[in-house]
């Protein structure tokens, strides 16, 4: 899979992260683009099969293939080939991103708010930390907090669709939405307080998404988060490019 093919894929599947990768230095783009394409592939793989066992087997394939990259080059495969070209054996460190998707494959709702937070940390949070590492920024409290806030907000926005797939909350009442929004705001506040510990170079990959405030405000009222418009997305990314402000 060439860089142009990955860009075409992300244009459809994840245009915000595509823009984030393109805002990063050119030397980091290959790694970031392949990382974000992997994230999309893992999310789709976990939901591609109706039967949980079949979905789990597909996710397990990714876990095994990613782990094996520590020892050897992958067999012919578009995305694994792109990961190997960009990351080499270091791509094996991305296997936990696949492991976290086993929950999606199992088609089980979350029994608690804490379980949603753990899932957010292991998926979107870990993804943000890996992306920051590409830019030379090591894991830190600020990165973990920003990743948690962003992942919780993204999950709240996706919750209506997830609920229909059996991947939402066991108790999807307004109190649960309010509690998740509160945890997201707390995480964002922690990241903002620690922003001076994060190099400016990491700004492109720390973007929390478009319409975060609106999404959290809706959840605090017990309502589903609205989807941002294309205009709002373009405006938010333009502000990020101009100001470098990633914190909420």
Automatic annotation (TrEMBL):
Origin superkingdom: Bacteria
Name listed for the protein in its UniProt record: Phytoene synthase
InterPro entries: Isoprenoid_synthase_dom_sf, Squ/phyt_synthse
